[in-house]
Amino acid sequence: DQQVKQNSPSLSVQEGRISILNCDYTNSMFDYFLWYKKYPAEGPTFLISISSIKDKNEDGRFTVFLNKSAKHLSLHIVPSQPGDSAVYFCAASYGTASKLTFGTGTRLQVTL
Amino acid sequence: DTGVSQNPRHKITKRGQNVTFRCDPISEHNRLYWYRQTLGQGPEFLTYFQNEAQLEKSRLLSDRFSAERPKGSFSTLEIQRTEQGDSAMYLCASSFERGGSEKLFFGSGTQLSVL
Question: In terms of CA atoms, which chain B residue is nearest residue A49?
């Protein structure tokens, strides 16, 4: 039972353009959502998060949008840079236990 | 901030052998998590500790797996009688629990290969 889904396994974007990564979830109990970035042979690194009481959170080039009615969130990266090439994981949790449920990841390739 | 440290980085073992991994969390963090990641999948929750108490274990964690966190500091994850299906990246993460949502900081993982 995949409660957090990332339906696009890969995405290729030109440098300077916008990257949009999508994530859907099925568990309506989730109230906190995070994006992690992972390079090969390293652990996931926290990127940005959003609470369910908000619909948008911005941090520099990264913005996360949350649509609770659609159980959908997205990560926008503007402008995309070659160093952004990595695997991006969407994750969700609920309550005071920060046990995260991860999606399967989207591999972003930013080309020159 | 030295980050979350995991040892060893790589472990190759023969089926049936026991292996033990160690995780040193960020020093002020009171929560410690173990995850497992296989190729093409996201990290899957295994278990977590608050201080020295193991508060939750996933059904993924068979009887061959045991985790400890003595004195609420470092943690060890032991797999007994390893099977080829245990081959995966084992990730440790830590956080500081403040009664609400918090982000997890991950180590670089231990890559286990069972031959």
Answer: B103
Q: Is 70 exceeded by the pLDDT of residue B1?
A: no
pLDDT at B101: 67
Chosen from A98, A102, A106 to mutate, greatest number of chain B CBs within 10 A: A98
Task: Compute CA distances B89 → A1, A55, A78, B37, B108, whole Å.
Answer: 21, 33, 31, 5, 9
What's the confidence (pLDDT) of residue A1?
72
Give the whole-angstrom CA distance, residue A105 versus residue A89: 4
Of A31, A46, A89, the CB nearest to B42: A89
Angle at B47 between CA B41 and CA B53, to 5 degrees: 165
When CB atoms are compared, the residue of B6, B40, B105 closest to A104 is B40
How confident is residue B102, by pLDDT bands cut at 50, 70 and 90? confident
The pLDDT tens digits for A39-55 are 988 899 999 999 999 99
User: Per the structure block, which two tokens stand in for A94?
Assistant: 């609920």
Interface of A with B (CB under 8 A): 4, 6, 9, 31-32, 34, 36, 41-46, 49, 51, 89, 91, 93, 96-105
Angle at A102 between CA A97 and CA A104, to 5 degrees: 170
For chain B, the distance separating the N- and C-terminal CA atoms, rounded to the nearest angstrom, is 36
